Structure of PAS/PAC domain-containing protein:
Amino acid sequence: MIVKPATNSEWVFTPDICSNYVSDDVYSLSSSSELFKLIVDIIQDGISVLDSTLTIKYANTVMKHWYHNKSESTSEKCYQRFHDINTPCEVCPCIKALETKQPQVEVVKYQLDNKDLGWQQVFAVPLLNKDNEVSLIIEYVRDITLRKIAEDNFRDLEEQKSILVNTLKNREHSRDELEKIIVNNVERYVKPSLNYLKKVVKEEDIHMVSGIIDEIIFPLTKTRPSQVSTLTPRELQVASLIKQNCPSKEIADRLCITKKAVDYHRANIRKKLNLKREDNLQVYLETHL
């Protein structure tokens, strides 16, 4: 037998068939038991044949490879040979097949020397005699360790995803609650204070402070049209003063910039708001800012 790694990093078992099974007579080969052995030895899953007492009658190359440190006797029970125990396995599809006379399948741990080496999917197919009694059981064993690892990893990822989604939902809920508190406090405390200050401070100064506060809480209120949200902080300051019907020279003095800079910002604001030549900027800002 030749054992070599395949391109997918799994092991491929290649029996040495050239010297043992060569025959010039194709019919003779096809009608012999040697063909059966050849086929099951080439199969990359484990195959064994048991009698009704779970005694091993045959085991293919893969089964021998998996349990290489065990005796190759064909008179041992499967649980003795493959699992090194003296009683049948707790989860045994072969026993179920004996009881039900129907094919069975189970997923079991692959153990050797009391060590868990992976997972196997075991199929047990009963063969019935003329008296409808089980005479043999074909046991087909597939190594599904990689699949189980992938399933477990996927399950872990799903759990982590669920935890993350719940965490984000909780954070979003907390953020929404905080936004409500901030907006409510502005309405209850800040704006009444500004109304009071209007009595002792110049109204235009109050308008400027009010505009700045509106800018601070805008990310929470989200009440602007989308075009206004494209304005820069300086353009928003200019727009706030235009809204108050301040001329360009006054805006320049308040913001400590030149009148030319104010006119430049005014033009940019009109462009970003998609206003036509005949549209009144101050009226638009009164409605949308």
Remarks:
- Residues 1-23 have pLDDT under 50 and may be disordered.
